[in-house]
């Protein structure tokens, strides 16, 4: 069981604690739906934290913020209050943040506007870019024009960092001109998901798993995040992105790296990112033509992609993807992708790792599943081969399950299957709450280092190259389990 006091530990008394959080693009959906509730969930657990939040977006922003700055300020204060109460956040830190928040209209692509925004802010300060990659790039260029940057400046970048390897490299170089890597957070909220953090606890706080966490004992790994959600009005973004870039590029590859990394010598922002980057560097597409692979794991199709057609999910009609708003059907954007990868190291060589994510899936699985090899010796006279042990951890549901064999091996019906299963208590922090905690502590241990974000794009390129050669777009009805592959 999780120690319930865990999340109540006071934040470290360090000079790195952020005093001012500036959210750029604060009128958008991400801020109201995820960032502010995440912040609220954190502040409710850390009553001593004092933080000033500045919301900022362009003056001509057409959204709900209203025509003049007074209206914008008022709407912003209401947005903050509503987001905090959506997670029942109360207490002195929540009150302090509400009372001290303010709104500054600013075009982040204009140096003069940024000067106005940042003048007089109290450091350490973090600029959170809740913006599309192209605007983030222009905002970084504008920041570089300023005579001086605030002292103790941190930058937090939402995914996607760039739109391909080339643009990610360019953006990382630009960010590197402004602040050190230790002052950069490439946010991936999947690293804050309770189930993902449970993998860290399971692996490194127990004697049981780590000695068998390698190719000699593990048969395969599956990291799956299917969703019932379809496009949800995000056609413009999604149609030029697709499932591989949206879900595998950072999220599932990062989770894979954390699940498979060598044990770090310290849990800090030097060791953890070094070990996860090591895994990503060694990752390649599964080679189904290798003789050893074909013998041990026959019939693997390394890449499968699909796109949903009209159907029903949870009783709701979902239109054909091609008929969704802001979508160009000729683009062949995939809403489902499955890629089998291999991490080519001594520890992992020959173990197939399945990453999968699909939209409009009827019965969605969301888990990290490790299937162990069978026992090394089959006994004569035992009527059935023993089933493998399986460890499964739910992403958001916080469900940890271990399947084992028990009972009499001589029973003609086969052995009994014992399922050790537990629901881990609610942690109190949302995934974005953990992200906020790391940012406000100035601790980038669980963010994506520049080289890791670039390796992610390299791997996506491998997957997308396979689209053209051996993974035709398959259709699947919304509400099904995705394309059927023979
Ligand atoms: O379940 P969560 O936390 O919303 O995460 C899943 C989402 O993660 C986002 O990063 C993707 O852009 C979405 O397409 C996806 O639905």
CATH class of the largest domain: Alpha Beta
Chemical compounds bound to the protein: 6-O-phosphono-beta-D-glucopyranose
Distance between the termini: 42 Å
Question: How is the biggest beta sheet arranged?
Answer: 10 strands, mixed
CATH architecture of the largest domain: 2-Layer Sandwich
Mean pLDDT: 91
List keywords for this structure.
carbohydrate metabolism, binds 6-O-phosphono-beta-D-glucopyranose, ten-stranded mixed sheet, globular, Rossmann fold, six-stranded parallel sheet, NAD(P)-bd_dom_sf, 20% strand, alpha/beta, 2 domains, 486 residues, Dihydrodipicolinate Reductase, domain 2, glucose metabolism, G6P_DH, disordered N terminus
């Amino acid at each position: 069981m999780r120690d319930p006091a865990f999340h109540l530990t006071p934040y470290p008394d360090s000079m790195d604690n952020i005093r001012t959080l500036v959210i750029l693009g604060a009128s958008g959906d991400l801020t109201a739906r995820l960032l502010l509730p995440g912040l609220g969930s954190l502040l409710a657990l850390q009553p001593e934290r004092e933080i000033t939040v500045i919301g900022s977006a362009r003056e001509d922003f057409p959204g709900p913020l209203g025509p003049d700055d007074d209206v914008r300020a008022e709407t912003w204060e209401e947005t903050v209050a509503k987001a905090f109460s959506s997670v029942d956040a109360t207490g002195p830190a929540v009150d302090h943040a509400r009372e001290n928040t303010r709104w500054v209209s600013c075009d982040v692509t204009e140096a003069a506007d940024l000067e106005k925004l940042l003048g007089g802010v109290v450091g350490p300060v973090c600029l959170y870019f809740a913006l599309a990659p192209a605007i983030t790039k222009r905002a970084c260029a504008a920041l570089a024009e300023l005579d001086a940057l605030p002292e103790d400046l941190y930058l937090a970048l939402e995914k996607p960092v760039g739109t391909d390897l080339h643009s990610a490299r360019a953006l990382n170089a630009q960010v590197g001109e402004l602040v050190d890597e230790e002052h950069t957070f490439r946010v991936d909220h999947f690293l804050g998901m309770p189930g993902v953090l449970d993998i860290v606890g399971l692996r490194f706080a127990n004697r049981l798993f780590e000695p068998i966490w390698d190719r000699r004992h593990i048969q395969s790994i599956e990291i799956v995040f299917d969703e019932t959600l379809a496009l949800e009005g995000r056609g413009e973004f999604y149609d030029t992105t697709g499932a591989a870039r949206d879900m595998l590029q950072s999220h599932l590859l990062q989770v894979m790296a954390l699940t498979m990394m060598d044990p770090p010598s310290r849990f800090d922002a030097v060791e953890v990112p070094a070990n996860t980057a090591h895994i990503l560097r060694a990752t390649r597409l599964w080679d189904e033509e290798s003789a050893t692979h074909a013998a041990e794991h026959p019939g693997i199709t390394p890449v499968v992609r699909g796109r949903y057609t009209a159907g029903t999910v949870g009783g709701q009609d979902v239109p054909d993807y091609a008929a969704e708003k802001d979508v160009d059907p000729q683009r062949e954007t995939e809403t489902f992708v499955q890629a089998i990868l291999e991490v080519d190291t001594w520890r992992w060589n020959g173990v197939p790792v399945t990453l999968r994510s699909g939209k409009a899936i009827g019965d969605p699985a969301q888990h990290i599943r490790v299937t162990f090899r069978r026992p090394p010796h089959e006994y004569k006279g035992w009527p059935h081969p023993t089933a493998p042990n399986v460890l499964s951890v739910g992403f958001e549901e916080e469900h940890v399950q271990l399947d084992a064999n028990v009972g009499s091996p001589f029973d003609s019906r086969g052995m009994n299957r014992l399922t050790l299963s537990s629901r881990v208590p609610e942690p109190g922090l949302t995934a974005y709450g953990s992200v906020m905690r790391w940012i406000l502590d100035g601790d980038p241990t669980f963010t994506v280092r520049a080289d890791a974000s670039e390796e992610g794009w390299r791997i996506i390129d491998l997957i997308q190259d396979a689209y053209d050669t051996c993974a035709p777009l398959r259709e699947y009805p919304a509400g099904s389990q995705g394309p059927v592959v023979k």
